[in-house]
Design brief:
The structure is a homotetramer of 466-residue chains. The first copy, chain A, starts with a strand and ends in a 10-residue tail after the last helix. The first copy, chain A, is an alpha/beta fold and 466 residues long. Chain A contains 17 helices and 14 strands. Chain A is globular and about 60 Å long. Among the domains of chain A are: 2-95 and 121-177, Rossmann fold (3-Layer(aba) Sandwich), CATH 3.40.50.720; 181-302, no CATH class. The longest helix of chain A has 25 residues, at 122-146. Chain A has helices spanning 23-32, 48-63, 79-83, 98-106, 122-146, 159-169, 181-197, 230-241, 263-272, 280-286, 289-292, 296-302, 309-328, 342-349, 398-420, 423-432, 443-456; strands spanning 2-4, 7-16, 37-44, 71-75, 88-91, 151-154, 174-177, 208-214, 217-225, 228-229, 275-276, 355-362, 376-384, 387-390. In chain A, helix 4 runs antiparallel to helix 13. In chain A, strands 1, 2, 3, 4, 5, 6 and 7 form a seven-stranded mixed β-sheet that branches. Chains in contact: A-B, A-D, B-C, C-D. Chains A and D meet through helix 5 and helix 15 of A and helix 5 and helix 15 of D.
């Protein structure tokens, strides 16, 4: 890369999972709208054709007249090819297919364990991690061998375990995980603030928060806007919206796998005093099974959707069809901001504007002093030229720490289980998961569930599991 | 205080040392130029007349037509009166007179120990601390009793020990210490960058640095501007300026007690690899006596000035005279930015704009993990609504840590010595000070020096010392 | 001192509080019964005549035919004289008189706060600390100046704060605190074991325990005898003795200020799962007021005695009279082991037999990892030649830690209050004391109590308090 | 197991590697000589016949008239069979054959890297670890599944990595590693003490030491005997024995693969001030290659032997032959103490006598506060009924820590490399090993060496390596 006045040219980005029909397109438009950067994006995907198609799409975007950031896209034939010379690496892969995901999400229902997403915590998240971790082992080794000084941005779930694996395999890696769930909560708080205080037109970036926790189970210990402390304001809002929930006019949780009415979030605030900062569907999965996910009826009462893998399969069909149209030039990606902050953070790491943003990295600096140093935590950090300086988030309250710790400990277990191909360690992790622990489920049933879930994802597991 | 749109009104600031003819005037003009704040400043000083005069001056400033921030100034008759109701407390006192300072700075010369400032480290800094700490005990108790939730900004030296005393007496205090030495180094680096890279007109705030160390002995582990890493640029600059030093056209160290040619700073970079970030006069005092302060001739060679207390006495006369003119209205304070960041930080703590700035606070969050938690350290922090979140600065390199640690340990000793009125602990601190340690000075001579220096400042010490 | 074969001769012991009519006599007989040691004991006391008398008594003991350890006793005129040349220093002083103690113990009763001992925790212990700490400041400074490498054994209460003061003033001090309360619990457990398991004649040293906590509020996390785990045995014993309590045939709590029926201890085991290891009178004082010390009736139900200062005064008269007889030679001290371990530990530190024993020292080695490093804790340690190696006791369970922490935090407050002569910090400590906190006592009443209690002990406080 | 008076009967010991012709026989005689214990030893070995033979030998020993401890030996057909019901597990396996060991020890000589043992540190130790760790993974999983509450004693090398693997796989394991190298140094110090101070007939247990470091690179920070500080005595001894070295009349390093003249040990004391406490052959391997192992000539000058694998092969033949004779009853194992402490520690863990002994366990209690918590360290510990309480050894001096840390970091790397089958991480570990680092060896040569050494041990590696 080269610095020239206030710009950087010849930047090289490697995109692992570059055949993606979602995140990759977001990146293309965000880059096209950023005038200070230009360079090459090397797309690598185990589905090489998908990467080839995206290269075509990317180059089309870059060629658009109103694209101020000019980029050249190409498909790479190997990790080595993609990574060699890279300044930045983006990882956004889908480990397995929706068939594996269907097993992750739905098989545990036979023991009465419902999951709203099934990709982070709970039985589904853990099994998904078992097939993801070996892929990340390979990716981390490749980064070490071919791009050891590149910055690595991960978008893949389960976030904490993906980042943990990268650092386990290559401790000197400069990797971090980005997730937009926190932004979603900031947007919700902006709505709350505007509704309660008579402001309007505010940018969600003006909601200043102190972030602490782990990905998808993140909390705000403080939040303010325009100097106003949002805690009493949020409390007041909850007073009048707790029962009904809150939805924007154009959103309705019943029509969406992703929307929610924020009732879980409000309930957690009432119970624990901090603002839970992720979608309700994610938050619910970290809590004991009998609270928000007891059965579909309970879920309806809390007004959030259970992921249906069917919907995801249909959505994939749509995206595949769109990909064809985009590749053929029958459709054009609109140049609109994706809402992701990845390009902003790349700029900050290039020294083009310091940023404070939430980030998933190991707790090495003790940014949350009462979680283990080896935990991957989500807190604010200061992004500066070639550096990420974590912000000292402070200690978690004992009650919230007690909710988070079992998951942190399970991350440790699942990483080991994946490396050792150790079924019994998975059983141990399941037994410690709040969705299972304390639900009067027999250990033999849990062991059978583990066996069956592993069986269903065997195509994506190393041989040691057989 | 009251929030109204994007402003805060009715803010109450207590200024301890409010008779000051320097910092107080800076505050007045900075407040007058800030449109988002207004309120009352309560000036307290043991020289009540000086506070009265400053109240007059402050009200004159506020009445100026171009003053966009409107403040009411009044002199308070007691700490209690000043503090009651305060939202912010500013401490900027002069402990003792220049006569005491003359002893601090010059008496050690009889043992060959030269000091360039004598207010922070070294024998002078430690004796100054002995008379300052009891005052800060009183101030901390008063804040605890009358303004326990106020934010407290300290400008008084010795900074580390003042802040340490505040937290020792009242651990819940919301206090921090501000110092502009780091800004000075940022300005120097801006000059370096402009000179080497052909930029011009840059704001020193664009020099992004990671700050670590203790006040007046602070270091940058990274520095960049416009995305460029300043380390190689600085190294190149030193290559051509090491021998001659660097001075701006309008500055010359020979004509000033405060200026320097940055030769010490450059030498420290060559030796330790990090950028020392304070004036050379301060830096030199933290190092062994035989390096930069061996004798006046050595000092001249390194091109920095030794403080002369005579100059300070004369300067005080000028400022007193100016005070008279200002009080009478014969002169007007010009509305120019002071270069201090205090008002910016007040705004950030009020939620009117998040800031990253360097700050002196206890190392409780482990912002520098290889210094004790009880040390008062200087690092960056994120200032947000009613919160200071330290930035994890990272560990000091072993070599720099070894330079800093004796001072941190002496802070501990001097605080205890001050509380216990324990002469022998002062002797121990002197013996561990790099200006004395290893200089073949006899312990009996050191003990006699301690006795004499304490004698010279006895008027400002508690009875326990007699 | 000199080593000769398996013995040490010419040992020098300084005894501060050497006029004592109790601990000093214990030491005399223990030394007389120890054949491997001989030397000189230098007795220092502010009551010089008492030291003179004890020198006579000590020399009489040493002259006894069956005294195998030969020692020379002399009264020292000053701390300096006593300490110069000392290999070991023993501190066993009584801070103030029983008049001060009467106020410590009984004045808080006006707010319904009853204390069973009043010398460690609670209002009485804290006020006692205020007059003790300045004495220990003086002693620590004298040790630093005249015997910096001597080992220092403290027997004075309040133990934790005495040891904390020594280390605060002279951090290099080689000091530790000894207390026999743990031995008492070991003896009780021996009785329990013999009763339940049919053993007899066991030595209490065979009760192996892991010790954790703070002095007088110490806990065993494990206990065994002859390989048997005492926890289930103790549980069974409690099953049949909880209501009635347990007393040895020759003891009855009703007849003694010191005995107890171990009901508090058994109750704490039932509630917290670890063995509380001090006399019930001590244990009760660390718990909330409404549990064991609610009123005299409650105390009777729990079957332990409230200290009566009257009894102490009468007892002192007896001991004074005995002192006269011993000095005159009308009575002879019997050569019986005192039950203290001090001489054993002195031998271990001289390298004459490694010992594991409980000890009060700062938590610097993290022997209890979830208490602050600055806390003075009681755990086992390995005593070896010129070294004390703390044994890693392990983390306290959260429930017990929550009981101990307020006291540890109050030690910090009271030490500071004593050094700063800061009444308000004493009030803060009182308000955090479990005997007061949560008892619906008005803050103004607490403040008045502090004022009155300080007034009553003013004769022993530094001038700064006036 | 059952407690009966002062004895334990029906104790079950599982011996993994139970076909051993060395350690197993030691255990048999030690058990036969211990009257307080009896029970069953279950011998498991991948060479089942060897286990069968040892069962016969063990039962013969137990049947001897003067055997006071009566034990029944049997060969187990599986880990599960051996472990089920076990109270104690002993692990003493030989990973691979002497052919693999020949490659470990001698292949690096092609790069000028000589190794005196090659089983702990250095290239040989690390490759040995690669084949050992998967075996320990299996063993740890079996212990977790079949004997989770048993105490586990490891004698296998490389010690630190074996113990680290056990805790990695099964964090709740109650495992520790025993090694007699420290005892050897205590015996040497006894000889020194007797020679210098005129004592005789002393037991090496009377040499009291504080142990710190890692296995085979262990140090004493203090050492005493009969109250005498051994440091000045050792220093004096070195003054007169440094050049010649020291050997007992019946030992000569030239005739032995195991003996040494202690010159390395003495040199390390002179350089670092602490007593290095392992055989010189081990110590040398932890230091830079150009110090003690530069070439065979250098080794001769330092007077210690390089292991010859030839000798080991011949020795094995002798032991195999002896095994045949013992099995047939043609020879009888003499009932002599083995010099190992394992049975003493078993007794201590059963509550039959508290012991202080050196032990290899994770640094979880911070027993060495300036090494990572995850390091396996060797320090003293207090062995008590069902508990090992580490003794706080204190911080390593910076100079010695700097020697140890690269090995601790390599343990981390090698464990990961073994679990991930990651050749490049092995290369990284080699490059950080002091025998290689700084010796001007090309990275490509190191990479080729790794490849070849792994190839040579491939028969004992998991499939992932192929």
């Amino acid at each position: 890369m080269k610095y020239k006045d206030h710009s950087v040219t010849d930047l090289q980005i490697a995109y692992i999972g570059g055949g993606s029909r979602g995140w990759a397109w977001n990146l293309m438009t965000d880059l096209a709208m950023e005038s200070q950067l230009s360079g090459t994006v090397s797309l690598y995907d185990i589905d090489h054709q998908a990467a080839e198609n995206n290269a075509i799409i990317g180059n089309r975007v870059s060629a658009m007249e109103n694209a101020v950031g000019k980029w050249s896209y190409k498909a790479a034939g190997s990790l080595k090819e993609a990574l060699t010379g890279a300044d930045f690496v983006i990882i956004s892969i889908l480990p397995g297919t929706f068939d594996e995901m269907a097993s992750d999400v739905h098989l545990p229902e036979r023991l009465g364990v419902y999951q709203s997403v099934g990709d982070t915590a709970g039985p589904g998240g853990m099994i998904r991690a078992l097939r993801t971790i070996p892929m990340f082992v390979t990716i981390a080794q490749a980064i070490r061998d071919f791009a050891p000084t590149a910055w690595v941005i991960n978008y893949t779930n389960p976030m904490s375990l993906c980042v943990k694996t990268l650092y386990c395999v290559f401790p000197q890696i400069k990797a971090f995980g980005c997730c937009h769930e926190v932004f979603g909560t900031q947007k919700f708080l902006r709505d709350v603030f505007e509704a309660e205080c008579g402001f309007s037109g505010l940018d969600w970036h003006d909601i200043h928060v102190n972030v602490m926790g782990i990905n998808h189970f993140t909390w705000f210990s403080s939040a303010s806007c325009q100097g106003r402390d949002l805690f009493p304001i949020y409390e007041k809002f909850i007073g009048s919206h707790y029962e009904s929930g809150y939805e924007k006019p154009d959103e309705n949780w019943m029509n969406s796998s992703f929307a929610c009415a924020h009732r879980v979030k409000m309930d957690l605030f009432k119970r624990f005093g901090y603002i839970a900062a992720a979608g309700d569907r994610h938050l619910a999965e970290f809590m004991p099974s009998d609270e928000y996910l007891n059965d579909p009826e309970t879920v309806r009462r809390w007004k959030f959707g259970l992921t249906t893998v069917d919907w995801r399969k249909k959505d994939l069909q749509k995206r595949l069809a769109r990909s064809v149209r985009l590749t053929k030039g029958e459709e054009t990606l609109p140049l609109e901001p994706s809402g992701e902050e990845g390009v902003l953070l790349i700029k900050a790491l290039l020294g083009l504007g310091r940023q404070v943003s939430n980030v998933n990295i190991p707790n090495t600096a003790g940014q949350i002093p009462n979680l283990p140093a080896s935990a991957v935590v989500e807190t604010n950090a200061l992004f500066d030229k070639d550096h990420i300086y974590p912000v000292a988030a402070g200690a978690l309250p004992a009650s919230i720490r007690a909710l988070i710790l079992p998951h942190v400990e399970n991350h440790e277990r699942i990483l080991k289980a994946a490396l050792l191909c150790d079924r019994e360690m998975v059983v141990e992790a399941f037994l410690h998961d709040p969705l299972i622990r304390g639900q009067h489920i027999k250990e033999t049933d849990v062991r059978a569930l583990v066996t069956d879930m592993i069986h269903n994802t065997m195509a994506y597991l190393p041989k040691g599991w057989q």
